[in-house]
Amino acid sequence: MFDKLLVANRGEIAVRVMQACEELGIDTVAIYSDADRNAGHVEFADEAYNVGPAPASESYLDQETILETADRAGADAIHPGYGFLAENAAFAARAEDAEGITWVGPPSEAMEALGEKTTARRVMQAADVPVVPGTSDPVDSAAEVRELGDEFGYPVAIKAAGGGGGRGMKIVRSADEAEDALESAKREGEAYFDDATVYVEKYLESPKHVEVQILADEHDTVLHLGERDCSLQRRHQKVIEEAPSPALDASLRESIGEAARRGVREAGYTNAGTVEFLVEDGEFYFMEVNTRIQVEHTVTEEVTGIDIVREQLRIAAGEELPFAQEDVAIDGHAIEFRINAENPAAEFAPTPGELETYVPPGGLGVRVDDAVTKGDEIAGDYDSMIAKLIVRAPTRERCLERSRRALRHFDISGPETIVPFHRLMLDDATFRAGEHTTDYLDREVDADE
Ligand code: ADP
Question: Where does the record place the ATP-grasp domain (predicted)?
Fold first, then answer.
């Protein structure tokens, strides 16, 4: 096992990784920007190094400085968390090549193949995994978009090949929208992902977002840990996630899990990853692979009892997965509520500021992953998510009741947060019934305006 690991991240996920390290006897190294001198992840680490000014581009994304810091600290492994450099195959390759360092993540070649959405679609098709109807080749002209619109039927989505989180995705509802949508998808792809390549997919109007957690070791074992349902989204950003999905029956669950396993095996993938699908009318379609730990990995941990970050570390150290597919059992239900410093009454706009009160709930079945305390300044430079509330109970019904209790006792003030929004969702009949689809929240919010 590693002796000392550098976490190339901040916030709750940095702490989450360091917790797993501590349990494995690994010393931890934090990096921090000028804005994060007193941040929770710095406090938690055994050692911490400043890597630059507040803007992420000059600190948490500064590959050179991060690698130098790992060297200076004598770290023998780097964990990227999620966001920042986590899906950057070029950084992974540099970390792999760095003397004495192990990259805690998939091989950079697998990241490269799956990170590009058109290539990922081809890999999945080769493994007999159904993909969203569309093209796996780049699309260049509005005429092509119109042709594909006629072939698949409108609406279609133009998506940036390097995209994610709904960025670089434009919906085309009729032929005359093709021109403008193509231009703006290319522009966003270029701006956010440095790649103007786009492709076209059928846009499903009311799907469920269902994703499968994968663990794969370097000894040919590829397992799935069941699925998560992340259908509650605001503008394609996940807000509440749960496991298992209320939308799958046993046979669909089995097929989607097996499809995910086939797909990542085809890609020569190791470590943890997530295969995302859209589910509509009892059919599932591959959407993309996230080649990293995800925010919502927690709900899977709660229902399987498996520590996914620990397994990431063990896999990266060359160890074998300590269980087989038939040992993975889903027990109970878990829901994660993202605690974002955002104002739900103002389009979920970020609300930076000082955290005046912060007393998270506790008790049976309640887990809070965070890296903040009262008095912290929530910086506008980073992600607005400041904590995650994860609630677990034997059934979904009881999980909803326990969530109500936990959310009522989440005492947080200073910046506006979406805690009040979560409380309201627990009274929403569609959410309670588990019938919400990815378009649901946007329709509700827009109808209220
Ligand atoms: P990510 O999963 O990294 O956030 P995407 O940008 O591919 O990346 O997808 C974000 C969300 O956009 C999905 O969860 C889903 O709600 C929606 N979406 C993506 N592709 C489609 C599609 N073809 N049809 C309907 N919704 C889609």
Answer: 121-317
